[in-house]
Each structure stands twice: as C-alpha cells, then as structure tokens.
Write a structure and sequence with these properties.
By secondary structure, the protein is mainly alpha-helical. The chain is 64% helix and 6% strand. Strands 1-2-3 form a three-stranded antiparallel beta sheet. The chain starts with a helix and ends with a helix. Bound molecules: 2-acetamido-2-deoxy-beta-D-glucopyranose (NAG). One of its GO terms (biological process) is killing of cells of another organism.
C-alpha cells in the first residue's frame, strides 16, 4: 500500500470506530410519557397537588426553577417566573386535557378562563425536569454505577426518580444495594415491595419488569 492509501484507511477506520465507541444516549422520555397524563391546564393530582403538562408537580421543591429553565427567553426577560405564578394561581377545571377543545359544551366558558400551557413549552418542561431526575438518579444510585447501566435499566430508574423525587427515592436503600450488585431479581423485588408500588400500580409493574430483565 502507498502512504496515501494507508492514511486514508486510518482516517476511515477512526471515523468508523468512533461510531462504535460513542456511548449510547439513553432516552427515558417515551416510558415517562406512557406513565404520565398530559394536560395543558392545571389540575390536582391524586394527592391534591397542582400539576400541569406531563405530571409536572408545581408544588414540589425546585418546581419554579425547573419551570423557568424550560423558557430561556422568558428567563432573560424575567417573564417566566410570572408565568409560573399565573399557573400556580389559575382556576382549576376537570376539562383540561387539551385547551379548550376537550371542554364539554356546558363547561366551555369556565375552561376559557383557565390559562393553557403551550404544547412546546410542555415538551421543554419535561426536558427540564428530566435533567433534575437524571441528576437525582445519579446521586441516589451512585454516579458511576448508574452510568454503567444499560439504557433500559437507566430509563426505568430515571422514571422512578422523576416520579418519586430525590428525597423519597433515597429511601430505596436495599434497591440501590441490589442495583450495585447487579442482582436484578432482588432490585425488581425491592421496587415492588414498597408503598409507592401500590400507589402507582402499572408504572411499578412496568418498571420492575424492565429492572428484573436486567442488563
Ligand atoms: C456524573 O458523571 C457524569 C460523567 O462523568 C457527569 O457529567 C455528571 O455531572 C455527574 N453527575 C453528578 C450528579 O455528579
């Protein structure tokens, strides 16, 4: 081979190898979307907390920051905080799947007085709270353990962190220990054997099945 050919071969194999070496980026969104409702208006969740979008709890710690982070332009103009406050005080309806189309005729006037969050904003809001959920998963499970897991298990764990929040997720001590050991049966059992599991039902069944299958 000539030097030029060898050089070309080297360049091509580097490009090719890079595709292999590049770590897979896990996407926890589809599973979360499956488990969350989707509403453009504020509603009360089962525990009576003001909620919007993909189950975004407006009353949780850090909710305001996540909401503002989802709107960089509003953040610069200082309007995102005001928008958050408006939704935090907005009247509630039961007719709030999409705005205002899902309203029953008799409820239209009530629904029109309720502010609706833009679909694109709801998507960005999910991205914003996912950032928090991923960091929470990294902290609770341990960063190097978490990032070494395969995507299905990572996604299932992020789903738990998204739903539980860091404080409650931290109580899953035996779960964490089982994940560290790669004992998938035990980890699935620990997820299932919790009060949380009884509350969220399908979500817990899905998650423990994925974790039980392991990496
Ligand atoms: C976990 O590790 C990754 C990669 O090393 C890093 O980017 C990330 O900030 C770390 N997360 C936490 C919560 O420390």
């Amino acid at each position: 081979m000539e030097r030029r050919e060898i050089l070309l071969l080297l360049v091509f194999s580097c490009v090719y190898l890079k595709c292999f070496v590049q770590t897979e980026k896990c996407d926890p969104k589809p599973l979360i979307k499956k488990h969350e409702g989707y509403k453009q208006c504020v509603y009360l969740d089962t525990s009576g907390k003001r909620t919007i979008g993909y189950g975004f709890n407006m009353e949780k710690a850090g909710a305001r920051e996540e909401f503002i982070r989802a709107d960089p332009r509003g953040h610069c103009q200082g309007t995102a905080g005001k928008t958050f406050d408006m939704f935090l005080k907005s009247p509630l309806t039961k007719c709030s799947k999409t705005c205002p189309g899902c309203c029953k005729d008799s409820e239209i006037s009530k629904c029109l007085s309720v502010p609706c969050l833009d679909n694109k904003y709801i998507e960005r809001l999910l991205d914003s709270s996912l950032k928090t959920a991923i960091v929470d998963a990294e902290v609770v499970i341990g960063n190097s353990t978490f990032n070494a897991l395969c995507c299905p298990v990572q996604n299932a764990i992020v789903n738990m962190a998204y739903n539980l929040g860091r404080t409650k997720f931290k109580d899953f001590v035996k779960f964490k220990a089982a994940i560290e050991k790669g004992d998938w049966d035990k980890a699935a059992y620990e997820a299932k054997n919790s009060i949380w599991c009884g509350q969220v039902k399908t979500r817990c069944t899905d998650i423990s099945k994925i974790i039980g299958a392991g990496c």
